[in-house]
Design a protein that fits this description.
Layout: H1 4-10, H2 51-63, E1 71-73, H3 76-87, E2 93-97, H4 102-112, E3 118-122, H5 127-133, E4 138-144, H6 156-165, E5 169-173, H7 178-181, E6 191-195, E7 209-213, H8 216-230, H9 235-245, H10 248-267, E8 272-276, H11 286-292, E9 299-304, H12 307-317, E10 322-323, E11 333-335, H13 347-352, E12 359-363, H14 369-383, E13 388-389, E14 392-393
Parallel strand pairs: 2-3, 2-4, 4-5, 5-6, 10-11
Antiparallel strand pairs: 1-7, 6-7, 8-9, 9-12, 11-12, 13-14
Helix pairs in contact: 1-2, 2-9, 3-8, 10-14, 12-14
Bound molecules: pyridoxal-5'-phosphate (PLP).
Length: 394
């Protein structure tokens, strides 16, 4: 199998057979004319399949080293929804990491519960807590590692063993690390889900998602849901995502380098109370990170001294980094999980999970790391109430 960088550029892509165009064209067409009754050329109607979308699906399949293509969706949430719709029936239980993307919690509590699917939240960073949460009714275990926004890790190998011993499947949300830095299938997972919105497309240009399985029956079940519910990715977004994927390896390596440097800077800053980043020696699960990941990724979480007020001043004080929901793109973004991405958790729940009201999530972009550090330094000074004037601190 060719190396990751080679697959990200060439995987599943063939020059256009008609024109030789090196990029897969954007097949912006609803329907496909048939050669005769019952004689189509593999495509009939874009909700059920489209050549540009299929190119992305083949490419993502090869990136993950799967014998089957991925299934591309209009968002990461659509990919997660499709996975749950395809695998679960009324009466089934799904065990989910207690710290996951806010939308996943909302999906389970506000949508799936009324169809008779029961979600059990567990601290999957502790294998014994996961083992206690699974039962004969567990059909699926869904983990996110590193988790958003606390960056708590789940040992995928251990989680796979526990899920399988209960007769359940293990799905890993690999959005934060992508196949460039973590290979859930090699660690024993059965399904891999992504928000391609983040690092995979990487330029803040699209919303998208994908799911992969190596099991043919499960793949067919996912396809049925995808075409029936009608939330497949669009041709144009697929094309943009394909362009993003080509530099994924390069980008996420630099995101990780920048993030480590930023994390070290924050750790040494007097206005910062605590920093979480898996590649820091101080990270509680640093050994697991080294075992399971190829690098630390681009997300750093930290707390500013002085509580919520200081955090808000920091979030409003950055100039280069932008206050916005999203992560994984070339622009550095800061987020306040308590009021933004994780507002669907109750306040006491957030506190119990380590998502304090003062927690800041920083998606470290690809700007010069010196410029970024200077931006953060200035915002931290302003947050601490220190105003820089010519020649000194007032
Ligand atoms: C963003 C995100 C999602 C949801 O993806 P969308 O593309 O926004 O629908 C799911 N999981 C994780 C870990 C995410 O960061």
């Amino acid at each position: 199998m060719p190396a990751f960088e080679t697959r990200s550029i060439h995987g599943g892509i063939v020059p256009d057979p008609v024109t030789g165009a090196i990029l897969t064209p954007i097949f912006q067409s609803t329907t496909f004319v048939q050669d005769g009754v019952g004689k189509d050329r593999g495509y009939t109607y874009t909700r059920c399949g489209n050549p540009t979308v299929a190119a992305l699906e083949r490419n993502l399949g090869e990136l993950e080293g799967s014998p089957l293509p991925a299934l591309a969706f209009a968002s990461g949430m659509a990919a997660i929804s499709a996975t749950l719709f395809a695998l679960l029936s009324a009466g089934d239980e799904v065990v989910v990491s207690d710290v996951v993307y806010g939308g996943t919690i909302r999906l389970l509590r506000r949508v799936l519960e009324k169809f008779g699917v029961r979600a059990i939240l567990a601290d999957t960073s502790r294998p014994e807590a996961l083992a206690a949460a699974v039962s004969r009714r567990t059909r699926l275990v869904l983990v996110e590692t590193p988790a958003n926004p606390t960056l708590k890790l789940t040992d995928v190998r251990a989680a796979a063993e526990i899920a399988h011993s209960a007769g359940a499947r293990l799905a890993v949300d690999n959005t934060f690390l992508t196949p460039a830095l973590q290979s859930p299938f090699e660690l024993g997972a059965d399904l891999v889900v992504y928000s391609t919105t983040k690092y995979i497309e990487g330029h803040n240009a699209t919303v998208g998602g994908a799911v992969l399985t190596r099991d043919r029956e499960e793949y067919d079940a996912l396809r049925l849901v995808q075409k029936t519910i009608g939330f497949a990715q669009s041709p144009f977004e697929s094309w943009l995502t394909l362009q993003g994927v080509k530099t994924l390896g390069l980008r996420i390596a630099r995101h990780s380098e920048n993030a480590l440097e930023v994390a070290r800077f924050l750790e040494g800053h007097p206005a910062v109370a605590s920093v979480r980043y898996p590649w820091l020696e101080s990270f509680p699960q640093h050994d697991l990170a080294r075992r399971q990941q190829k690098a630390g990724g681009g997300i750093v979480s930290f707390e500013v001294k002085g509580g919520v007020e200081a955090s808000v001043r920091f979030l409003e004080g950055v100039r280069l980094a932008k206050l916005a929901e999203n992560l994984g793109a070339v622009e550095s973004l800061v987020t306040h999980p308590a009021t933004m991405t994780h507002a669907s958790y109750a306040p006491e729940e957030r506190r119990a999970l380590g998502i304090s009201d003062g927690l800041v999530r920083l998606s470290v972009g690809l700007e010069s790391v010196q410029d970024l550090v200077a931006d953060l330094d200035g915002a931290l000074d302003r947050a601490a109430g220190r105003v820089l004037v010519a020649g000194g601190v007032r």
